[in-house]
From TrEMBL:
<protein>
    <submittedName>
        <fullName>Hydroxymethylglutaryl-coa synthase</fullName>
    </submittedName>
</protein>
<dbReference type="Pfam" id="PF08540">
    <property type="entry name" value="HMG_CoA_synt_C"/>
</dbReference>
<dbReference type="InterPro" id="IPR016039">
    <property type="entry name" value="Thiolase-like"/>
</dbReference>
<feature type="binding site">
    <location>
        <position position="242"/>
    </location>
    <ligand>
        <name>(3S)-3-hydroxy-3-methylglutaryl-CoA</name>
    </ligand>
</feature>
<feature type="domain" description="Hydroxymethylglutaryl-coenzyme A synthase C-terminal">
    <location>
        <begin position="263"/>
        <end position="341"/>
    </location>
</feature>
<feature type="binding site">
    <location>
        <position position="29"/>
    </location>
    <ligand>
        <name>(3S)-3-hydroxy-3-methylglutaryl-CoA</name>
    </ligand>
</feature>
<feature type="active site" description="Proton donor/acceptor">
    <location>
        <position position="79"/>
    </location>
</feature>
<dbReference type="InterPro" id="IPR013528">
    <property type="entry name" value="HMG_CoA_synth_N"/>
</dbReference>
<feature type="binding site">
    <location>
        <position position="275"/>
    </location>
    <ligand>
        <name>(3S)-3-hydroxy-3-methylglutaryl-CoA</name>
    </ligand>
</feature>
<keyword id="KW-0808">Transferase</keyword>
<feature type="binding site">
    <location>
        <position position="143"/>
    </location>
    <ligand>
        <name>(3S)-3-hydroxy-3-methylglutaryl-CoA</name>
    </ligand>
</feature>
<comment type="similarity">
    <text>Belongs to the thiolase-like superfamily. HMG-CoA synthase family.</text>
</comment>
<dbReference type="GO" id="GO:0006084">
    <property type="term" value="P:acetyl-CoA metabolic process"/>
</dbReference>
<feature type="domain" description="Hydroxymethylglutaryl-coenzyme A synthase N-terminal">
    <location>
        <begin position="2"/>
        <end position="164"/>
    </location>
</feature>
<dbReference type="Pfam" id="PF01154">
    <property type="entry name" value="HMG_CoA_synt_N"/>
</dbReference>
<dbReference type="GO" id="GO:0004421">
    <property type="term" value="F:hydroxymethylglutaryl-CoA synthase activity"/>
</dbReference>
<feature type="active site" description="Acyl-thioester intermediate">
    <location>
        <position position="111"/>
    </location>
</feature>
Amino acid sequence: MHIGIDQLEFYAPSTYLDLTELADARQVDPNKYLIGIGQSQQAVIPVTQDVVTMAANAASRVINDENRNKIAMVLFGTESGIDHSKSAAMYLKRLLQLPDNIRAIELKQACYGATAGVQFARDYVALHPEQQVLVVGSDIARYGLKTPGEVTQGGGAVAMTISAEPALLNLDDVSTFRSEDIMDFWRPLYRTEALVDGRYSENVYIDFFKAVWANYQSQTNRHIRDFEAFAFHLPFTKMGLKALRAVLPEASEQQQSQLMTNFEASRVYNRLVGNLYTGSLYLSLRSLFDQATLKPGQRIGLFSYGSGAEGEFYSGTISDKFDVEASKAWFDHYFANRTQVDVATYERLFKQQLPNHDVLLDTRQDDARFVLAGIKHDQRQYVDRE
Ligand code: CAA
């Protein structure tokens, strides 16, 4: 029996910032952002979207009448949750009208949460092949105005169903992981913006990748030649390029160029959206599926990294049922219909945080199906506009 990713959909708000304009405003050479960081645009998140609404907007496209009653768990990866106690999965479960006989929980380990969800889901489906698990990664990446991390902000959500005989990716059995208690990136409870030791975080990311990749090779006897492509957690797309370059010398010249071509395919969407923390690896995987030319049976390697830190390498092969046309059309439409905001508007939206008292938000500018309409009695008011 194969187990793996059956569906993989994405949502981010329709407002975005062009990073050439940000570079001009910050008096930085635009090529630092476009080439040095590898980002062209970033999603700007309005106050009417949070991790729950973004997850609902993505997940409503993977839940349908056929699979609604098969969903046994909702595993919600996030590092920008909205409550210290109640899980974002519980709100999501209600918004999606999922049945009550399910488990709904939140998973936190920086950008690694959704990968934990995928792995737990795989194990669950192995025991219960007739059921499915909804795995979500939803985040808003905030470092602060005029900080070095500003150019690596963004936000959005991915939603996946993990099932037997999946339509996208059959997961291989072996995955290798590593954890170490370090301070490369963190966000104390009292802060809305992350703290980061930028260069150190990049170095640890690469060290973790090399360690889990070496461990994976020795456990499986697989070599880089067994891989058609790699998908990386992309906090910014140059990060994935640095990781790929760390292993490229293991490949033949011909394969190096094929891995580079597929890497370019894997960063098309991320370059335009920015960091979505838990969802970034899976947006990159979606980008690879849609923008590369892949065939059933080809093997993809996935590297997940969550600061603090947890890293995991795992792999899967393209399913026989693989078809990407609908997803491509969705992304074409999404990118063609976004609204660019100028730097002043982005700064205003960035500062517009929810107050800690009752408020009614103006949702008229927000074209999403699920929106946050305000706070009443310390409870977020979510609306499904369909
Ligand atoms: N043309 C082309 N390239 C240029 C350039 C120009 N005019 N000017 C500079 N560059 C290049 C630099 O040479 C550098 O390249 P390398 O990284 O290959 O050396 C690159 O642009 C960035 O320049 P700096 O190192 O000077 O950039 P910076 O000090 O402003 O900060 C950063 C970069 C550390 C990534 C910062 O944006 C940051 O802290 N980001 C957030 C942290 C992060 O994303 N870490 C990633 C690992 S942690 C993780 O993955 C979890 C997560 O999601 C947070």
